[in-house]
Amino acid sequence: MNTEIWGVIVQIVLMVALSYPLGKYIAKVYKGEHTILDFMKPVEKFMYKLSGIDPDIEMNWKQFLRTLLTVNLFWFFWGIILLMAQGVLPLNPDGNIGQTCHQAFNTSISFLVNCDLQHYSGESGLTYFTQLSVVMLFQFITAATGMAAMAGIMKALAAKTTKTIGNFWHYLVLSCTRILLPLSLIVGFILILQGTPMGFDGKMMINTIEGNAQAVSQGPAAAIIAIKQLGTNGGGYFGANSAHPLENPTYLTNIVECCSILLIPMAMVFAFGFYIEKKKLGYCIFGVMLTAFLIGVAVNVHEETNGNPRIASLGINQSHGAMEGKEVRLGSASTALWSVATTATSNGSVNGMHDSMMPLSGLVEMLNMQINTWFGGVGVGWMNYFTFMIIAVFISGLMVGRTPELLGKKVEAREMKIASMIALLHPFIILTGTAIATYLFVHAPAFVAGEGGWLNNSGYHGLSEMLYEYTSSAANNGSGFEGLGDNTRFWNYSCGIILLLGRYLPIIGQVAIAGLLANKKFVPESAGTLKTDTVTFGIMTFAVIFIVAALSFFPVHALSTIAETLTL
Q1: Which domain does 91 fall in, by range?
Q2: Which one of 192, 226, 414, 499 has the lowest number of neighbouring Cβ atoms within 10 Å?
Q3: What are the C-alpha distances in Å from 209 to residues 206, 215, 496, 537?
Q4: What number of helices (H) and strands (E) belong to the chain?
């Protein structure tokens, strides 16, 4: 076994090993138990007092959602105004101009919904001011929003019967001060020590080996890169994202960043088990997610380390794998692992070019986002799995003649309807968007492309590029095949709409289901209760996810990634 494969194994073991104690810690934070970061309480109290918030006031699920949506609406306008005006604002040593209205609309929504889809190049599309006051700010509060939503659902499911699910503001602040901020400081310091820039100087002029002068962007990169990975945000400070040698300087930073992508999503699954005091259920959910993740890793590592058969037929040595679009300093196996980690979550950062990867690797990457339940974004990944648990409980109960119950609460028609609509929304918006774009590219290409737009490939791969764009938007992922010129009115507005639908409608439905269940009478376990913490139920949930989510996309993959594979 070569060292690249060992590197992949070590990283996966490290992710799992670190996520378990972090999950226990997160559960304690949300339950209000004593933790080592209790010294942050005075800071939190000052924030509550300054904002006029009483963190002890309980909210029902409607009040919880109203607060969540209201603050997100405020931040949307905050972002779009600053992005359009950034050219005249301070901290702009490189003289970058403000974004257009449609680009600012897309960018503000993208970072607001934890997607970080970028229709611009990082170092030239933003200033230091907007990198901090929009991008970095949103990367904290949007990650914390997803975590707060999960905390509310956990509280609802842990209670026997209750009308309230906690305080959104309290969970939001705790997520930032007790989890995201301390972890970001640790990761940020490691990046600085490895050479990632952290300052406010403008472009640095250097002389290359060829003797030419080159301007290299700098700025407060380390701070932003840390939270972009930990919060499953993923937006590239530099245009090349984590393939850039200043954003990801060494193999050590590559390990740290890749582990950071999955650390909190994995930990949140364990946190659920600890919070509701049903660790076996948490292990069962984690096992299903980890199994699916490992299958994806095995496929992508195999595909990328074995090379492209078309190139091999030319007699070219591919002993290091399919290296097109990959960093030599990182290797094909490391890029393959990252491609699965970043799409199994809603992170979207890249350390190689997904557009250059093998078609089956592209299939895995898209399926991860189309299923959108294998760890997923911080908080919302588990919430998507929760949706399918509701469906699986209902179907399993009907199949075996047992009462469909989840954690002592009856799952009835109302919860089932909401869960079904959420599950079907995801493939609907992805496939509808792709179908419209494909039709317009054929019949009205000027309308879709606009000024500066393009599609690098026709045929199977061209369809994959458009499918990937909408898949990434709906899954709040943000990565792209990047063979698509997407900074046009059509792509900015259409992706922006899908970003909103893919983020907020599921959260509304999932919190509503938890609120409805919490208000029901608690039913003690009996011989007729369907067990949800077994391997059998885990397999059942996996089957429901595969049938409802994965098979919805089989026809379009048959025309894109699968068809392209068969041509090799």
Answers
A1: 3-204+217-277
A2: 414
A3: 10, 14, 42, 60
A4: 23, 6
pLDDT digits (tens, 9 = 90+) for 232-250: 998 888 888 999 999 999 9
Q: How far apart are the C-alpha atoms of 415 and 516, rounded to whole Å?
A: 8
Q: Does residue 86 lie within any of the structural domains?
A: yes
**Global confidence as pTM:** 0.94
State the residue for tokens 């699954």: 269
In the beta sheet, which residues pair with residue 326? 352
For the stretch 161-220, pLDDT in tens is 889 999 999 999 999 999 999 999 999 999 999 999 998 888 888 888 888 888 888 889
CA 34, 272, 225: angle at the middle one, nearest 5?
80
Both tokens of 419, joined, read 């869960």
How many C-alpha atoms does 38 have within 13 Å on its Cβ side? 7
**For residue 285, is it within any domain?**
no
> Could you tell me if 552 and 439 lie in one domain?
yes
Q: Kindly state whether residues 384 and 514 are assigned to the same domain.
A: yes
Domain endpoint, select from 226, 247, 277: 277
8 A C-beta contact, residue 223 and residue 136: yes
**One-letter identity of residue 405:** E
Whether residue 329 is contained in a domain is answered as no
